[in-house]
Amino acid sequence: MRWSNTFIPTLKEDPQDAEAISHKLMVRAGLIRRLTAGAYIYLPMGYRALRKAEEIVREEMNAGGGAELFMPALQPPELWKKTGRYDDMGDVMIKYTDRHGKEIALGPTHEEVVTDLVSREVRSYKDIPLILYQIQTKFRDEVRPRFGVVRSCEFIMKDAYSFDADVEAMEASYKKMYDAYCRIFKRCGVPYVAVEADPGLMGGTVSHEFMVPSKMGEDRIIICSQCGYAASTEVAGASSKDDRKKDPEKPKNIEEVSTPGLSTAMDVSKFLKVDPRDLIKTLIYIADDEPIAVLVRGDHEANETKIKNKLSAKTLELADEEKVKEVTGGDMGFSGPVDLGIRIYGDDSVKNMVNAVAGANKKDTHLVNVNPGKDFKVHQWMDARIITETDPCPKCGSDIELKQAIEIGHTFKLGTKYSEPLNAKFLDEKGKECLIIMGCYGIGINRILASLIETSCDKDGIIWPVSIAPCEVVVIPVKREDEDLFSEAERVYEELCEAGVDVILDDRKKTIGVKFKDADLIGFPGQVIIGSKGLKEGKVEVKSRATGENSFVDKDKVVESVKAILGD
User: Fold this and answer.
1) Where residue 204 falls among pLDDT bands split at 50, 70, 90?
2) Where are the alpha helices (DSSP H) in 290-433?
3) What sign has the CA pseudo-torsion 135, 140, 142, 148?
4) Where are any strands of DSSP class E within 214-364?
5) Residue 247 covered by a domain
6) Are 156 and 136 in contact (CB under 8 A)?
7) pLDDT, the chain, mean
8) Whether 335 and 475 share a structural domain
9) Residue 251 burial (CB < 10 Å; 0-12/13-18/19+)?
10) What is the CATH number of the domain that holds 70?
11) What's the domain count of the chain?
């Protein structure tokens, strides 16, 4: 490939609308361009990297027993209505009405479609196990597309689906896919962590997320350096203990105190000169159209995923100001559990609180000396909060780290969530009709590139691993106008091509400074620099982008030196 024959519009400055490092560098390096909110054009260098990532995914999925197919992006909503996800997806699903008056959905994912396919084709236990996968464009109407290709409305996903006769066979398929994911991300050079996760709208029982720790990640995970436990904060168990050393108190009688305009736990604790850990926050939720109260300690955050799962609720959302007033009789920010006429669910850390502070269900008023059991009853105690960095590891009790992360893959044990409503059944060896047991496995191909760049870059640009770099090596003649230099650059370029190296020749009539900056910005793993001084001595310069190390080698040994840098 010659630079003059492709399209690489690099930029000196960061784009104004970019927040994330990966977004800035992908635009500056000429990998992508924004078309509209949440939709990006992949330019030649970006598309080459994307295709290389796709090929690694494809190779490992095939090695894991997957069979590739390709399903339409256009989907009939009827299938989604059968599984109940049509309403669950809400406005995220992009829909339109065709010229015949029929509603069509642009697929955000393909569980319904592939299960419907298998329900029509699989008849016998002899037809399974089966793992089907595709690499396809998905569409979701994101409320706030951001971070470039990390959260976009149109994106490329590898989605796979396993179909088995029983749970034991599904576990075997799940392990195949889990192991394939580990190989994929390792080959792509992505520093991933596999964590326990919540299945969410996908359903099923067990799931794992493959996360890349990054400051711009929208997810939060905990990692224990001692036992290796890792989990999303959505599912990680939180301790119910209060480790403060304090003298045991006797319950006192409730008193009202004036807290004018103070509706947050932090403001109230400062005003009353108490520790936030001595406050009870009362949050009013609507769970499946029923108002409920959830109690958490003042220094904690409610974990809506845990609460929803514990209640087996289909929907859970915070009540608005009008509903709070209707339910409690007071303004938002002053809710409390005393004399509250709805079901109360309490986090375990609240259970043993003594003489706590809570809202009085009255404007500008709180209560002191509130005691669980004595002053109010809780319908159910549960782990209802988000784990914090001061909590011990749920597995071994050691210290944990809390990190932001980007999700690049997710695996699910679906069971019969889709096979039952879509009637995907088979006849077993005894002729008995049984439901197929399913698993589901997704990878965000776009996110592989973005997460790699987030974790592998420097002040000069991207540092690609060889496996998914747009090109492995760039050949740079110092002076394009010097025919001897350029002739040697072409000879080296041809020699590298013949040796199977993915190489680009920078044949532009640009200054050497511009060429060096672009080479570092785009991040080609190897650079071969042809200069007058070296050429007079029969040598060329070979440089590693990752280490910055360079050496002058005999011009007849360039291929050998380049392959050493590339790790071949």
Assistant:
1) low
2) 304-311, 321-328
3) positive
4) 219-224, 230-232, 255-258, 279-287, 290-297, 316-318, 343-347, 356-359
5) no
6) yes
7) 94
8) no
9) middle
10) 3.30.930.10
11) 3
| Amino acid at position 167, single letter | V
pLDDT in tens, 305-355: 999 999 989 889 999 999 999 999 999 999 999 999 999 999 999 999 999
Residue 98 burial (C-beta neighbours within 10 Å; 0-12, 13-18, 19+): exposed
pLDDT at res. 216: 87
Report the distance separating Cα 376 and Cα 373, nearest Å.
5
201 pLDDT band, cuts 50/70/90, is: low
- For CA atoms 415, 417, 419, 425, the dihedral sign is positive
Contact 387, 238 (CB under 8 A): yes
Nearest to 113 by CA among 156, 70, 153: 70
Sign of the Cα pseudo-torsion (457, 461, 467, 472, in order) = negative
The label of the residue with tokens 């997806």 reads 89
Which residues fall within 8 angstroms of residue 218, CB to CB, at 6 or more apart? 147, 151, 404, 406
Q: H or E element: which one contains 187?
A: helix 167-187
Residues 6+ apart with CB under 8 A from 536: none
Tokens of 52: 């290389």
Range of the domain at 56: 17-190+415-453
Residues 6+ apart with CB under 8 A from 286: 292, 315, 316, 317, 318, 319, 323
Query: For the segment 55-70, what is each residue's pLDDT rounded down to a tens digit?
Result: 999 999 999 999 999 9
In angstroms, the CA 316 to CA 355 distance is 30
Same domain, 482 and 359: no
> What would the DSSP string read from start to end of 25-92?
HHHHTTSEEEEETTEEEE-HHHHHHHHHHHHHHHHHHHHTT-EE----SEE-HHHHHHHTHHHHHGGG
Let me know: does 384 contact 309? Beta carbons within 8 Å.
no
Question: Could you tell me the CATH number of the domain that includes residue 271?
Answer: 3.90.960.10
Tokens in use for 288?
A: 């499946």
Cβ burial, residue 381 (10 Å; 0-12/13-18/19+): middle
Indicate if the alpha-carbon torsion angle 413, 416, 421, 422 is positive or negative: positive
